Amino acid sequence: MAMIGLGVWAYGKQFSAGLTITGMTDQVSWGMYIGNFTYLVGVAAAAVLLIIPAYIYDFGPIKEITILGEILAITALIMCMLFVTLDLGHPERVWHLLPFLGTPNFPSSMLDWDVLVLNGYLFINIFISTYLLGMIYLGKQTKKWLYMPLVLLSIPWAVGIHTVTAYLYNGLGARPFWNSSILVPRFLASAFCSGPAFSIIIFQLIRKFTKFKVKDEALFKIAEMVCIAMGINLLLLGAEVFKELYTDSWHNAPIIYMFAGLHGHTGLVKWIWTALIFNVLGFLIFLIPVTKKNFVTFNLASVLIVVGVWIEKGLGFIVPGFIPTPMGEIWEYGPKMPEILITVGVWGVGFLFYTLAVKIAIPIETGEMRVLET
Questions:
Q1: At what angle do helices 269-287 and 295-313 cross, to 10 degrees?
Q2: Torsions phi, psi of 262, nearest 5?
Q3: pLDDT tens track for 90-119
Q4: Which of 131, 222, 230, 239 reaches 20 to 30 Å from 63, CA-CA?
Q5: How buried is residue 140: exposed, middle or buried, by Cβ count under 10 Å (0-12/13-18/19+)?
């Protein structure tokens, strides 16, 4: 609640003074808000890595925790929408993007596509999780014909939400750092690292502080999927870096700025190298059987990947796209205190929502909460 309170206080100042109190400028117009939005879309999309083994291959240890994963996806989507709203200069005008209420520029606008896929994925996850929990609570048999079509639909839809988010950047031809055909698979690979790694941490906290049992087999299977995804993510990153540096065109300025600095501007260098080291270490820990089976190194790898991808996919992806500007200027971005406090507040909302949802879901799943028979 303290996190939320600080965020509300800081947002009151932003709402009255405008985005001028943030570190964003006309030259770097996206920052911490959109960075967190991009990261959290990946966390939401990663729920598909629980759905496929649970519902398609009927893998019991993961099927037992799928609802908790879907609740995490719902939480991430709510936070995504909050971050986008915070980034608007006039959030009260967001209704213009809504079908029937406003005048969305559909289907030309990728932003309208993003509104559509994110809200659709949110509805799918809310329906599946509430229906399954409701049937358990009522002690009734679930009807597969009612929820399985949505389960199957959620698989391509999960891929779609991050694909459309990638297209938001990919379609900006004036920003060569983003205008790359490899962007979609990079987004998906990094999503399938960060989301499951986040889940590993949360599931262990749940089994430690509640009566809900999460089996080691489920955690290790998720770690295997994270390892594969991180290997692909690192491969694609290496391919992108090679292409930019080997061709030695003027479009390589954002990559040089990221990893070595540009004309004395090095604000992002230490961050991107930290992210790269974290991701490589997390990948190696999950790759080596001895360290993967040791819960000390296992949890360390999960934290490293969560933080590493957050840096890489947040400011490590957003900021270089604006450097240099089309006029050749270099404006370095750094989040100011109001942005940081507002961001902390949104994460506080996410933690609160997930905690409350889990406090309802777990008693139902463990049989402690059931409808009273009359």
A1: 140
A2: -135, 120
A3: 888 888 777 777 777 777 788 888 888 999
A4: 230
A5: exposed
